[in-house]
Amino acid sequence: MRTRMNKTERSTSMSKSELVELLSRDIDIPLRKADDIVDKFFETMSEALSSGDRIEIRGFGTFEVREYAGYTGRNPKTGEETAVLSKKLPFFKVGKVFKERVNQK
Questions:
Q1: Domain housing 35
Q2: pLDDT-wise least confident of 11-15, 27-31, 46-50, 75-79
Q3: Helices in the chain by DSSP H: which ranges?
Q4: Could you tell me which residues are beta bridge partners of residue 13?
Q5: Are residues 40 and 62 in the same domain?
Q6: Over the stretch 21-71, which tens digit does the pLDDT of each residue have?
Q7: HSE on the CB side for 32, CA within 13 Å?
Q8: Which of 2, 19, 51, 84 would you call most buried, defined as having the most Cβ atoms within 10 angstroms of its Cβ?
Q9: Same domain for 63 and 47
């Protein structure tokens, strides 16, 4: 895992390749197979969300797509009004068990 500095605290992030390596080591499978598993996991989640499905992983959280209405915005530089189109965005709601685990420290 790489460590990066925040303004207020130190945090770590994990890249996809680091996730694949960890999975490969933890369940003793070849890197290529672990990479295929991670790819398939994210591909399946993306397809499900794209088709309007909601993904609930008990103890972890819920993924869903939320639709946001269009509105009239302003260009911050010129102040000119501009139409902002409606859009759909993925949303994650953290589960209770996951939230508690993260806050244990």
A1: 14-53
A2: 11-15
A3: 16-26, 31-50, 96-104
A4: 2
A5: no
A6: 999 999 999 999 999 999 999 999 999 999 999 999 999 999 999 999 999
A7: 0
A8: 19
A9: no
